[in-house]
Amino acid sequence: MTAAVKRIRSRTVVLPTKDIDTDQIIPARYLTATSREGFGKGLFHDLRFNKDGSPNQAFPLNQPAAAGCEILVAGNNFGCGSSREHAPWALLDYGIRAIISTEIADIFRNNSLKNGLLPIVVDADAHQWLLENPGAEVDIDVAASTVTLPDGRSLPFPIDAFARYCLLEGIDQLGYLQQQNESIEEFEKARPWKP
Amino acid sequence: MVEETADTPAVLYIDLHLIHEVTTPQAFTLLRDMRLPVRRPDLTLATMDHSTPTTPVSSFKDLAVVGESAVRQITQMQQNCADFGIELLDFDSDSRGIVHVIGPELGATQPGKTIVCGDSHTSTHGAFGALAFGIGTTEVGHVLATQCLLQRRAQTLAIDITGRLTDGVGAKDLILAIIGKIGVDGGTGHVIEYRGEAISAMSMDARMTICNMSIEAGARAGMIAPDATTFEYLHGRPRAPRGDDWDAAVLRWSGLGSDDDARFDRAVSIAADRLQPMVTFGTNPGMVIGIGDPVPDGAGDASFRKALDYMQLTPGKPLTETRVDVVFVGSCTNSRLSDLQQAAEVLKGHRVAAGVRMLVVPGSQQIKKDAEAMGLDHVFIEAGAEWRESGCSMCLGMNGDTVPAGQLSVSTSNRNFEGRQGVGARTVLASPMTAAASAISGRVADPRTFL
Questions:
Q1: B5 belongs to a structural domain
Q2: Is residue A68 part of a domain?
Q3: On chain A, which terminus has fewer CB atoms closer than 10 Å, C or N?
Q4: Residue B346 belongs to a domain with what CATH number?
């Protein structure tokens, strides 16, 4: 279903603002679409573009050095707010494959992992270094669960073992749930009260 | 259903799956592609609220006000529910409304249930002692296909509320104060239990307002132990158990509260009796102050500065000087009957100030009917406010109800994010009473002066 995610090597683009919510990532007016494709156009729309529709040159993603960057270093608590999976869809469609921050909101992190977008939490010191060094060449190794900085420092990041396994093998979690069918049927029959 | 291990998450069975038009189309497409049925349509309940207009809908022409793609989304929802055998509370249903308002109203939300929905404010249902949380569209597909979700156990956070709320200070003020205290990431990874004197004394409507905004503190869910108030609310509702089943359910529900000696990973305490009405001044719900307090300066923090610039507010001054353009009473946070009653109580005998647009949007068609039976619609209309059909409305700018760029809105909704109510809209979150007082004054106002 989903492609395996094993390693990402890329320069970083830095968005230092804290508490970037999912309404910033993809404004609600884009959510009337019924497919998963094409949300990259709306990514950070109201930050990326001026009121007249021209690109906001001051926005980090619009700067020439950001072209082709697959790793977004973001301020604390990235992805807070709504449960819209359109947020990771928009980031992936635009070409972002990993987010590094000191904290990533729960539902966004969960949605990201199900789509092969890597949510990576590092300590405040490493984060500060990344904020101060946009364009740094960073190497993310999913199997080892490490982020390696250009100076060779290797930082471990937490990731749920099952989510890591699914990423490395490109496994969709629905298949795993379907395999539980027997247990589900038993549970439905045996439970003392019916919802 | 299946316990978690180091290598695999728990498999959690879902007792109630609420769905709406915005976060489901891609999940139904997956089911079609994989030729899968919906495993338990009987445990799935659908409505349309997010991208639907709050003007009367009798034809597609009426729908078109929200735009072509929204119409497509709405018609696709109708088709999906018909094809997969799911009950849809459609435009012609007297039971339709905001998904988090109708679940409890119909008695489908019950203590001890696991409840999910592709919407972060699913935490609302935790007010009944249900484990309720928002999920993404991929997980909506998982639940449609298997009625199950993969989950890791959350950490626990106890929030103890001491004392009682004073007149003019409500549940909305309390939850805003809590978010201000623990921060918009203060609950990340945790399920919150709210408890204490003020919570026990609260109506279910007020408890729902509290649990609704758990997500604004980053929490996975918020819960309140079920008690006599919970049971009284549910008794006789269309989907609540009846007869012997009711007695058995109450017995089971009565045992769901946390043990007296339960240990939480963290605990926070807050004094309800010292709170003022709360208003947000920034671009997230944690940027909040008492209505008489000055806007803080943020001590040089760049994100803070950016938020104040967006809001066009000056540090050191209270918000009560700020001119208001729009007032919105509604949303899954504050659109229930008691919210409308509180707004009407303040508004009665007054007029909405010149130049202010006030929109009152009941959370469900049932609430609309109940409010009209009490004459609340007359209070709003005579004051100069608009009285609408149910829906998410101005909480998020995707259904035709928006705040124009640069305008300031005092809103009873849950998010003051940049652009949430419309591109460039500036949002001040507040209680229904503060919203009504601000509508009368034309400036952000303390409701206690109107009581």
A1: no
A2: yes
A3: N
A4: 3.30.499.10
Chain B interface disruption, residue of A36, A80, A104, A179, most B CBs within 10 A: A80
Range of the domain at A141: 7-190
Average pLDDT over residues A90-100: 98
Res. B61 pLDDT band, cuts 50 70 90: confident
- Which of B303, B332, B414 to probe the A interface (max A CBs under 10 A)? B303
Kindly report, residue by residue over A45-69, the tens digit of the pLDDT: 999 999 999 999 999 999 999 999 9
CB contact under 8 A, B415 and A21: yes
Q: Are residues B283 and B236 in the same domain?
A: no
For residue B290, which of B450, B451, B444, B415 has the smallest C-alpha distance?
A: B444
Query: Cβ contacts (< 8 Å) between B215 and chain A: which residues?
Result: 81, 107
CB B262 within 8 A of CB B160: no
Write down the pLDDT at residue B254: 98
- Same-domain status, B147 and B159: no
Cα B401 to its chain centre, rounded Å, is 17
Query: What's the confidence (pLDDT) of residue B115?
Result: 98
Minimal-distance CA residue of chain B relative to A159: B7
**What average pLDDT does the segment B267-277 reach?**
98
Nearest Cα of chain B lies from the Cα of A172 at a distance, in angstroms, of: 10
| DSSP helix/strand/coil, B202 | coil
- Res A1 pLDDT > 70: no
* Total count of domains within chain B: 3
Q: Is the CB of B284 less than 8 angstroms away from the CB of A19? A: yes
Nearest to B303 among A17, A106, A195 (CB): A17
Query: What does the pLDDT look like over B233-242, one tens digit per residue?
Result: 999 999 999 9
Spell out which residues of chain A touch residue B43, defining contact as CB-CB under 8 Å: 195
Span A70-98, mean pLDDT?
98
Residues of chain B in contact with residue A177, where contact means CB-CB under 8 angstroms, are: 11, 142, 145-146, 148-150
End-to-end CA distance of chain B: 51
A16/B302 CB distance under 8 A: yes
Distance from chain centroid for Cα A13:
14
Of B247, B273, B299, the residue at which a domain comes to its end is B273
Size of interface A-B (CB pairs under 8 A): 186
Query: In this structure, is residue A2 part of a structural domain?
Result: no
B chain contacts of residue A114, beta-carbon cutoff 8 Å? 136, 138-139
Whole-angstrom Cα distance, residue B181 to residue B430?
16
pLDDT tens-place string over residues B151-193: 999 999 999 999 999 999 999 999 999 999 999 999 999 999 9
The DSSP H or E segment spanning B12 is: strand B10-13
In a shared domain, residues B146 and B220: no
Asked if the structure places residue B126 within a domain, the reply is yes
What average pLDDT does the segment B421-450 reach?
A: 98
Confidence at B230, pLDDT banded by 50, 70, 90: very high
Q: Is the ipTM, as predicted for this complex, more than 0.95?
A: yes
Distance of residue A105 Cα from the nearest chain B Cα, in angstroms: 7
Read off the CATH number of the domain in which A101 is found: 3.20.19.10
